Q: What sequence folds into this?
C-alpha cells in the first residue's frame, strides 16, 4: 500500500538525511492501516514516526544518503546540507576509571537482585525502599559510536547531554547530527537544547529524538 505523498514529504522535511527507504515506508504505512486500523491522519503520521525512531536505520534508510562514505577522511571539512539522523551503537564513559564504573555496576546488580527477591516474595516496598535511587554511574565525558545505518563515526560529549544517561539510555537511541567546523548550531528538536559533541576536528550538535 503506497503511502500518501503528504506523508512522504512530511518525513522528508523532518528527517531529510538519510532518506527513508520506500519499501520500508510502504510496509510501515500498510501496517498502520490494515493491522492497527488507524484512520486519523495525525495518528498515522505519529505512529509512522514512532516506528521510524524505533527502527534499525539499516532497515529503514537508504545507503549512501546519510553520512558521507569518506566521513573519517574529511579532516575537519564541514558537511554541507541538512542535519543527519544517526543512532547510538555504543556508549562509554571515558572520564572515569573502569574500577569506579565496575563498583557502580555491581551495586546496581545487587539492587536489582534485592528488588527481584522482594517482588517474587510478594513483599511491598516500604517508603524508604521506594525512595531509594538506583546507583548512578559517574559522569564526565561519554564517547559514542554513531551510525546512519551504514557508515559509522566516533563522537565525544563536549558539553553535558542531560537527555542521555549512561546505563539508562538504550542503544539504538536516535539523534540528529549536524556537523560544523568549530562552530555552533541553533536548531532544536522536540524541545531539547543543543549540546555539543567532538569528532576529530569537528563539532557535532546532537538533538535528541528518541
A:
Amino acid at each position: 500500500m503506497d503511502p500518501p505523498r503528504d506523508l512522504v514529504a512530511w518525513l522528508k522535511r523532518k528527517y531529510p538525511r538519510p532518506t527513508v527507504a520506500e519499501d520500508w515506508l510502504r510496509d510501515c504505512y500498510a501496517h498502520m492501516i490494515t493491522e492497527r486500523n488507524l484512520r486519523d491522519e495525525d495518528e498515522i503520521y505519529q505512529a509512522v514516526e514512532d516506528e521510524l525512531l524505533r527502527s534499525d536505520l539499516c532497515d529503514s534508510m537508504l545507503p549512501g544518503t546519510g553520512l558521507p562514505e569518506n566521513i573519517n577522511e574529511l579532516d575537519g571539512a564541514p558537511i554541507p546540507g541538512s542535519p543527519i539522523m544517526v543512532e547510538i551503537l555504543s556508549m562509554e564513559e571515558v572520564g572515569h576509571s573502569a574500577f569506579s564504573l565496575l563498583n557502580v555496576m555491581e551495586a546496581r546488580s545487587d539492587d536489582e537482585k534485592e528488588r527481584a527477591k522482594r517482588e517474587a516474595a510478594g513483599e511491598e516496598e516500604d517508603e524508604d525502599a521506594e525512595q531509594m535511587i538506583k546507583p548512578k554511574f559517574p559522569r564526565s565525558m561519554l564517547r559514542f559510536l554513531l551510525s546512519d545505518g551504514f557508515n559509522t563515526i566516533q563522537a565525544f560529549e563536549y558539553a553535558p547531554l542531560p537527555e542521555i544517561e549512561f546505563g539508562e539510555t538504550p542503544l539504538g537511541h536516535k539523534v540528529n547530527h549536524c556537523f560544523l567546523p568549530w562552530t555552533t548550531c541553533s536548531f532544536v528538536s522536540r524541545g531539547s537544547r543543543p549540546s555539543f559533541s567532538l569528532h576529530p576536528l569537528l563539532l557535532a550538535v546532537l538533538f535528541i529524538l528518541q
